[in-house]
Specification:
The protein has 11 helices and 15 strands. The chain is of the alpha/beta class. It has 2 domains: 256 residues, Spore Coat Polysaccharide Biosynthesis Protein SpsA, Chain A (Alpha-Beta Complex), CATH 3.90.550.10; 67 residues, no CATH class.
C-alpha cells in the first residue's frame, strides 16, 4: 500500500473567490492533520499549486515536516471545449479558478496519482480541519474492510449548479446499458414506489408494506419506468474529505464515464461540482458494502461569508458533542450546519 494525502492550495492571504486567508487556513489544516493523525502515520502529503508557493514559502509551510511535498500544476481550459461557451464568471460570481479546481478533483487527480505510484489517497482542502485524534491508520482500515470509498458527511447540493446533470447521467447509463448500483435510489418521488422510502445509498429505509429489496433492481433497463430526472434529490458526498482507492477510478468503465462528462464541459459551463460527479460515479459503479461512512472524529469544513455560515459546517464525532471546537463553532455561527 502506498497512500497519500492531497491538497490543492493557494498562497494568498485573500483568495479572489471568498476573500479568505487561504495560506493561513492551509497551515491550520496541516497543523491539525499532523497533530491529530499524521504525526503517528507519516503519510506523504502532496500540496498541488499553480506556482505561487516559492521555495521560501514551501519551507515555511512544511515546518520541518518532511512528508509534505509541493507539486506545481498548470490549469487551462481543455482544448476540446469552446472557450466562447465558458463564462469568465459563472452566474457573475464564480471565477474560472473554482471551476479548474472542480475539474482537477473530478478527472485529473486520478491519472496523476496513478502515475506517481500512489494507490490510495485522502483529500483535504485548505479549510478542512480534523479536530479530534484518529488513532488508527485510515487507509489500512479501508483496505482491511474491503472498502474503496470513505466519506465523512453528506450534504444536499444546491439546485442551481445541478441543472441538467441528472438528466445527462440517466442518458449516459441508458445509452451504455449500465446497471447502476444505487444511483436510481436517489430520486424523490419515485422513492415511494411500493411504499418504501429510500435515501442515499439505500442505507436509511422506512419499510411499510410490500417491501422490495432494491429499487434499482425493479427499474434497471426498464426504459419506460425510470424516474424523472428532475426528481433527483441532490444528496452528495461532501467530498472535501474523502478516502478512496485510485484503482477504482482507473477502471475502464469509470474512466469512460469521467471522460464523457469531462468532454461535456459541465464543470466550466454549468458549474457542475466535483461533489456531484464523484457521487454519481460511486453510486453507479461501486457496491454499497465497499463504501464507508466515517463518524468517529470531528471534521470541519465551512464556507464563511461576511461572518456568516454560508455552506457546510462542523460535523461532531460520535462522542464529541461537547468538544470545545464544536461549542465554539456553534457559539460563533449559531448552528453547526448549513445545508440548503
Amino acid at each position: 500500500m502506498n497512500p497519500c494525502i492531497v491538497y490543492l492550495a493557494q498562497n494568498t492571504p485573500k483568495d479572489p473567490q471568498y476573500g479568505r486567508d487561504s495560506r493561513g487556513m492551509l497551515e491550520k489544516s496541516l497543523d491539525l492533520l499532523f497533530q491529530n493523525y499524521n504525526d503517528a502515520f507519516q503519510h506523504d502529503v502532496l500540496i498541488f499549486h499553480e506556482g505561487d508557493f516559492d521555495e521560501s514559502s514551501q519551507l515555511e509551510v512544511k515546518k520541518g515536516r518532511s512528508q509534505i511535498q509541493f507539486r506545481e500544476i498548470n490549469f487551462a481550459i481543455p482544448e476540446f471545449l469552446n472557450p466562447r461557451e465558458i463564462p469568465e464568471k459563472w452566474d457573475g460570481i464564480y471565477g474560472i479558478g473554482q471551476r479548474h479546481m472542480a475539474r482537477f478533483f473530478c478527472y485529473s487527480i486520478f491519472p496523476i496519482l496513478n502515475a506517481l505510484g500512489y494507490d490510495w489517497y485522502m483529500r483535504l482542502d485548505d479549510d478542512s480541519f480534523i479536530h479530534t485524534k484518529i488513532n488508527y491508520n485510515l487507509f489500512e482500515f479501508m483496505a482491511a474492510n474491503q472498502c474503496d470509498y470513505g466519506y465523512r458527511a453528506i450534504l444536499k447540493e444546491p439546485l442551481r449548479p445541478t441543472y441538467g446533470f441528472s438528466e445527462m447521467v440517466l442518458a449516459y447509463i441508458k445509452a451504455e446499458r449500465i446497471k447502476p448500483v444505487s444511483f436510481l435510489e436517489n430520486f424523490d418521488h419515485s422513492l415511494t414506489l411500493n411504499n418504501e422510502y429510500f435515501s442515499l445509498k439505500g442505507r436509511l429505509k422506512k419499510r411499510v408494506t410490500n417491501v422490495i429489496d432494491r429499487l434499482s433492481e425493479k427499474l434497471n433497463h426498464d426504459l419506460n419506468n425510470w424516474p424523472r430526472a428532475t426528481e433527483w434529490n441532490r444528496q452528495t458526498y461532501y467530498n472535501n474529505f474523502h478516502i478512496t482507492r485510485v484503482g477504482f477510478w482507473m477502471t475502464p468503465e469509470v474512466q469512460s464515464f469521467l471522460s464523457y462528462f469531462d468532454r461535456v464541459g459541465g464543470n466550466y459551463k454549468y458549474r457542475w461540482s466535483d461533489h456531484i460527479v464523484q457521487t454519481a460515479a460511486v453510486q453507479i459503479f461501486m457496491p454499497d458494502h465497499r463504501i464507508h461512512h466515517f463518524q468517529d472524529f470531528t471534521y470541519e469544513h465551512a464556507t464563511i461569508k461576511e461572518g456568516k455560515l454560508e455552506w457546510g459546517g462542523i460535523f461532531p464525532g460520535t462522542d464529541d458533542n461537547e468538544l470545545l471546537a464544536v461549542n465554539d463553532f456553534k457559539k460563533q455561527y449559531g448552528k453547526l450546519l448549513c445545508n440548503r
